[in-house]
Amino acid sequence: MDIEGKRNIWKEYQKEIADDHYFYVRSCVRQNFFPGAETVFLRILRDLLNKDIFENPSHTSCSGICYHSDIIPFETTMTVIARQFSLMTDAGYKNFVTSCITSFGLYSEVMETWRHFPEKKDQAREFLRKATGRDFEVPVNVAHASDIIFKFRKEIAAKAKYRLINRETGKPLRVVEHIGCHYSKMFPEKGIGGAEYPYVLIGMIEEWGGEVVDYPERRHCCGFGFRQYLVRANRGLSLSCSKKKFDSMEPYHPELILTNCPGCPMFLDRWQYVMSEMEGKTYGPDGEAIPVFTYEELAGLVLGYDPWDIGLQVHQVPVEPLLRKMGIPFDPEKKFLGPGGKFMGEPQLPANFICK
Amino acid sequence: MGKLYERLMQDVRFQEGLKACIHCGTCTAICPAAEFYVYDPRQIVDILQTQDDRQIEELLKSETIWYCGECMSCVTRCPRGNAPGLIIIALRSLSQEMGYFTESEKGRQQLALKRTVGQWMLDYGYCLYAPLISAKQHPEQGPVWEWEQKHLGDVMDRLGANLNRPGPGVLRRIPPESLEEIRRIFEVTGGLDRFDKIEKFSRIKALEMGLEIGEGTDSEYFARIYLGE
Q1: Domain A14-145's class?
Q2: Percent of chain B, pLDDT > 70?
Q3: pLDDT score at A2
Q4: Which pLDDT does position A9 carry in this prediction?
């Protein structure tokens, strides 16, 4: 399909995103594996964009990983979600922002279920009242955190210190965008650009100077699959999905992968390590692996935040070659320093990874 | 219409997921699990549309229903608005309610999921909790995770987290009264009842297999289901 056709599809999937006053709920995967990403998201919203974004410490996981591991009934998840809405209602907010894609899909699924089966909403309300004495209002606006960065991508570009451009050649970086399955595969109208040609990450890449790479398996799942990763015996499926994507994107020479789901960057980062160990194979330029970033991390990078402040040292794939390519200064000596400048030791570089 | 089919029809996910399948096979063509396993969501829907309890019981006891990764790629592409991924969720729920899940190797893994992500949700308010994601059980996480595990508190502090402390922030300690609310929600909505069923039927199966099952994640039965049989 030519670009004009895609733009017509994108026009059909425009989504309203609230402008300010957000109630924020965190992602369990992102907190565990990319803690700096959530930190930098709040920093951008509060310090750069002067937005009001509130977090209640009493919120929990949405229970989505338990739900999609099939160990809890739908009623349990619906009521946990009703409790999150109750915390939002108590705090006086109406715009709900979630860091997680699984959560975003589940909030959408629960709200759609309540629309089609109002008795399930009444049941969740009654369960919540019985269990906690709480009541709730449904949010007026539900957005994924990547929707928020998309909404303010031009403001970020205006304040950016670096662009997605190879400093030496002047050419745009070739960026693969990978959208989490639960962002819009279930409810295309909930995602910017729909399910087949989602625009949420493309908008950021284009605005910040990069070139989007198209490749055959662009919409293939990263392979999380819940039980397919969480149980060690099943991880072959998870790895195979990622391998399929990397084999498919390799001929198009991507230099960077951008993701909006918390799980996908972890898998696309870690499975590159596993493939390098198993097959001696890497997929990036000059024998390197391909760095995989979250949208918060990339926004932080173009804005000029220190790479080690936003958490790029907890990626398995070394990011230094890309930082040099973009002309972003960094101090290698500070990569593994902890609080107060304490050296925390250094993880071993995988045998088949190159970090020039 | 058989009793099992009637039970499935009570599940809103089944009602929403199965409208009128034309057996085009688009779901199977797009399915990541069908590329890896001998797995055919089209065939599952075909069996369900017979409404025949004998075949449905066989399905609920089979490996087949546990292959799906619930990515929901099938939902986007189905030309008739069906959702095989949602049908799978309904089948897995019924398989556990009936105690059929222990009849398959993949179904038996439900105990491992209950004793990890399920327990962590109740104990900490997080489905995943870094201090318990050991490098030993997760070799694919590589040297960087091994390093993080050794210096978890410092790494989290360096990145602005609030690990196991009160107040807002990454991996904050969820207040005890909030954890009690979550436990009560699980109690009132059937979450704890599901956990009890997973434990009960797994114990029966462990006895049958001659394996010690214990309470946590270090028993013979747990190792068998988690690492592969």
Answers
A1: mainly alpha
A2: 100
A3: 64
A4: 73
Tokens found for residue B159: 């990145």
Confirm if B155 and A31 have CB atoms less than 8 A apart: no
pLDDT, residue A11, reads: 72
Domains plus CATH for chain B? 3-98 (1.10.1060.10)
> Is there a contact between B12 and A74 if contact means CB atoms under 8 Å apart?
yes
For the cut 60, the answer to whether the pLDDT of residue A1 exceeds it is no
Contact in structure between B181 and A83 (CB atoms under 8 Å): yes
Mutate to test the interface with A, among B105, B128, B179 (most CBs of A within 10 A): B128
What is the tens place of the pLDDT at every residue in B75-124? 999 999 999 999 999 999 999 999 999 999 999 999 999 999 999 999 99
Residue-wise pLDDT tens digits, B210-221: 999 999 999 999
Bridge partners (DSSP) listed for residue A292: A257
Task: Indicate the DSSP class of residue A218.
Answer: T
Residue B126 CA to residue B132 CA, distance in Å, equals 11
User: Scanning every residue of chain B, which has its alpha carbon at the shortest distance from the alpha carbon of A64?
Assistant: B127
**Considering the domain A149-341, what is its CATH architecture?**
3-Layer(aba) Sandwich (3.40)
To the nearest whole angstrom, how far is the Cα of A56 from the nearest Cα of chain B?
6
| Six-digit token string for A221 | 């799942």
> Which residues in chain A are contacts of B166 at CB distance < 8 A?
57
B contact residues 174-203, partner A, Cβ 8 Å cutoff: 174-175, 177-179, 181-182, 184-191, 194-195, 198
Residue A176: C-alpha distances to residues A99, A282, B85, B89 (Å): 21, 16, 27, 31
Q: How far apart are CA A252 and CA A267, in angstroms?
A: 20
Domain ranges, ordered by start, for chain A: 14-145, 149-341
Q: Nearest-CA residue of chain A relative to B81?
A: A186
**Percent helix / strand / coil, chain A, rounded to 5:** 50, 10, 40
DSSP, collapsed to helix, strand or coil, labels residue B72 as coil
